[in-house]
Amino acid sequence: MAPGLDAPSLVDLELLRSAARPRASDPRRHGPRTAAFFDLDNTLVQGASLFHLARGLAAHRMLTGRDIARFGLSQLTFRIRGERAGQVESTRRRALSFAAGHAVTEMTEICRSVFEDYLERKIWPGTRALAQAHLNRGEPVWLLTAAPNELADIVAQRLGLTGALGTVAEAVDGVYSGRVCGDILHGPAKGVAMRALAEREGYTLTSCHAYSDSANDLPMLTAVGHPHAVNPDHKLRHHAQRQGWPVIEYRTGVRLMRIGLPSSAAVGATASAVAAGAALRRAGRRREATDSVAG
Q1: Which is one GO molecular function term here (predicted)?
Q2: Domains annotated on the chain, with CATH
Q3: What confidence tens digit (pLDDT) does each residue in 44-73 have?
Q4: Which residues are catalytic?
C-alpha cells in the first residue's frame, strides 16, 4: 500500500528545484526497475485532449460544426462528472472514424498543431513537475492514454518523457481505414498494456508509480506499488481514501485533499507537487538504505 502524503510546507520547494535542475542519475542505484505511468486527460492536462483534437480536425475541415458541438458537450460532461467508460469508448471510435481516408502524415501534423495551439497551455504544472521529478531520479516516465497514439507521442516528446502508448488507428499504405487496431487503450486494456510494457522493459511493478484521475484506470493503479489519484472522480476519490493512497487535487472549487490550503488551482498545483515530491524522496531514501544494506 502506498504511503499517504504528509502535509507540505510552502517553503519545501525541493521537488520544484529538482524539476528545474536535472541531475545525473545513478543507474546502479535506480536502474530500469522503477518507472512512472501517467494518464493524460484530467491528470496531465485539463479536461479531455480529444476535444482539442476535434478543434484541430475542425480547423482542417475534417469535422463539421455539429461534430465539434457534440465533442464540446462531451468535454463539458467530462470536466463536471469525469470519465464514463462507455462514453470514452464511443467518443474515441467516432473521432478515429473521421480520420478515414486521410494520411497518417496529415494527422501527425494536426496533432502537432493541437499540442502547440491548445494542449501545451492546458498542462497541469504540478503533474508536469511530478513527471520531471521521476525523470530526475533516473526513472522512466510513460504516458498511457486512450487518445490517438499520434497525439500521445507528440505530448511525450514535447515534455521529454520516455515514451507513450495510445490508441492505434489502423492505416493501410499510410492512409487511415477508420478502424482501431486492437482495443481502445482504456480501462482494463490500459492495465494490460502497462503490464506488457513493464515486462518488456524489465520494470518491477511493485516499485512503480501510476497517476490517474479515473476509477476506470483502477486496473493500472492497482497493479503498481505506488498509485496516486490526481483530480479524482467520485469513485476513485473514495477508493483512494479507503486504501490510503495519495490524493492530489488541482481543480478550483474542489476541496483540496489532505492539504490545508486555499482552493486555488495555482497554489494547489504547487503544494501537491511538493507533497508528492516529499513522498518520492522518502521512497528514494528507503531504496538507498536497502541498497546500502544489500551492498
Answers
A1: metal ion binding
A2: 14-21+29-46+123-294 (3.40.50.1000)
A3: 999 888 878 878 887 877 765 555 555 444
A4: 39, 41
